[in-house]
Predict the 3D structure of the following.
Amino acid sequence: MKYMLLIRHGEAPLPGTPEWEALSADEQKAIGADYQAISQTDGVTPGVWIEHPETATTVRVENGETLTTDGPFVAVKEALGGYLFFEADDLDAAIELAARVPAARLGGAVEVRPVKEGF
């Protein structure tokens, strides 16, 4: 079964922020190493990290007119920070991997969803 892990940063410190700078160099390195180890886990297809939610443009179409709004549609603490795919035997294995994502322990969350194959 293939799963998509949606990484929501929540309160987790992000590089380039004062919260990140407040971490020790060892803590910063450990977080980077954890993400690297996850990317190298068998069955993982790394996704990409995306820029901070404030850089988003939200697009809607109403009555055939395209409307844009600066910023995210969701609350910033709920915003998506990145994703990855994981081919696993079962949901328990995907949950185990999600628990290794640093954002999950630093104030964020990881949403695990089965990937629907075909339409």
